[in-house]
Write a structure and sequence with these properties.
By secondary structure, the chain is α+β, with helices and mostly antiparallel strands. The chain has two domains: 1-31; 39-149, SoxY domain (Immunoglobulin-like, Sandwich), CATH 2.60.40. Helices cover 22% and strands 35% of the residues. The chain contains three helices and nine strands. The chain is globular. It starts with a helix and ends in a 7-residue tail after the last strand.
């Protein structure tokens, strides 16, 4: 009987916390938890526009930034990517698809002391250069890889 009461109290206290958070307006429909996203970056049409929107003067190509993806994507609607950085003090990472209408696919803050490795899926309408952009110790670095997109998975 005592265990049931504890479980009920634990469950009801969790529900009470959620109800309190909801009444405080923390769970409003349409609100975003990521308050600091850069709208101009997501609207950028070119790599240089993106760099400007992020406050970067320039970016250097680096072998310490790695893009892992298929060379030929048989389904451009869901192309898997992993980007990683071996640069010390990596602060942020982003993936860009050069020929997409908006080049920025995803942008991620990397907390200090964590592994700088991000996996995602991107939509690609056509063969394009893909760029991994990394901010490390206040400077920007990138790697470029061409990914071919086929129609129907024929490899052509």
């Amino acid at each position: 009987m005592n265990n049931r009461r504890r479980k009920l109290l634990k469950g009801s206290s969790g529900a009470a916390v959620m109800a309190l958070a909801a009444s405080a307006g923390l769970f409003r429909p349409g609100s975003a938890w990521a308050q600091a996203w850069n709208k101009a970056a997501f609207e950028a049409k070119t790599f240089n526009d993106l760099l400007k929107s992020m406050g970067a003067g320039a970016s250097s190509e680096s072998k310490d930034v790695v893009i892992n993806s298929p060379d030929i994507a048989e389904n451009g609607a869901v192309v898997p990517f992993t980007i990683s950085s071996r640069l010390a003090k990596t602060e942020a990472m982003a993936l860009l698809v050069e020929k997409n209408p908006n080049v920025l696919v995803g942008s991620y803050a990397i907390p200090g002391g964590t592994e700088a490795n991000v996996t995602m899926r991107a939509k690609m309408g056509q063969t394009s250069n893909v760029i991994a952009l990394v901010k490390a110790d206040g400077k920007y670095y990138h790697a470029i890889k061409e990914v071919k997109v086929t129609i129907g998975g024929c490899g052509g």
